[in-house]
Design goal:
Layout lengths: L14 E4 L10 H28 L6 H18 L2 H10 L3 E3 H34 L4 H4 L2 H17 L2 H8 L6 E4 L6 H6 L6 H34 L4 H33 L4 H26 L1 H11 L4 H4 L5
Parallel strand pairs: 1-3
Antiparallel strand pairs: 1-2
Helix pairs in contact: 1-2, 1-3, 1-11, 1-12, 2-4, 2-11, 4-6, 4-9, 4-10, 9-10, 10-11, 11-12
Subcellular location: Cell membrane
Protein name: Olfactory receptor
GO molecular function, one term: G protein-coupled receptor activity
Amino acid sequence: MEATACNESESFSPIFYLVGIPSLQEFLFLPVFFIFLLFYLLILVGNSLILVAVVVEPSLHKPMYFFLINLSALDILFTTSTVPKMLSLLLLGDHFLSFPACFLQMYLFHSFSCSEAFILVVMAYDRYVAICRPLHYSVHMTPQTNAALAASAWLTALLLPIPAVVQTSQMAFDSTVHIYNCFCDHLAVVQASCSDTSPQTFMGFCIAMVVSFLPLLLVLLSYAHILASVLRISSQEGRSKAFSTCSSHLLVVSTYYSSIAIAYVAYRADLPLDFHIMGNVVFAILTPVLNPLIYTLRNKDVKTAITKMACPQDPQYSGALDP
């Protein structure tokens, strides 16, 4: 791609201007602000409830729920890296980000996104061991192993975006950089640069392939083994019970990769710029807002634990989760 001419002076630090949604009329800023605020509060409250429920309820001290609280913490951090700035943009017209703030936001957004993909793989492995090797579950999924798996997912995701972020920060920018997005996404910042964008676009594509398709392949491989094991169960009741332990995770995986697909199609299709931007916004909000709903509505243990916290004196729930 041909570089755009710009001021080559290194005496200034670029200021990044977030355009937001270009065609959004000003009178719609406040309604959209309240919609985003509602989603953000749902994310904070829903995921915090899951975190507290798993921590305080002894019967939920199991590997599956240990990984679930990692996912909930990630959802809170993931949205907090972008949504507060979106809210400030809509309510206060605060479009500007400094150079360090923009690249910090870019790094955190992509790191937490990577972490979510890897945690979903770890959760799929947990379900694989639980269903395909139930007699060895307590041996394979020890607290030390669980902590190592979660730490590996976090650490890998925190390291993976560093090369792309560092190299993008070394590209040439004008004094005021217009970012056609609601936050500092890697591709949007690269496209706003005056340098040749081809190397950075290729690097971003390679990282996206590693983060998106490799974890998806591992999840599908786990569920292929799970499906084969479940089909060998003779009783219908046994099959239903095995599938029910995976249903919440499968829905979360489907939601996560659906949001990626929406963002990808919005970018690749010949659509107006607003659709590209909204594809990124959907990716930033959809999965974190749906994850707690999925686990509280479809997972009986989590739902009971949260209800027990809300109604501690209700005899219907007071002993429901006792070991």
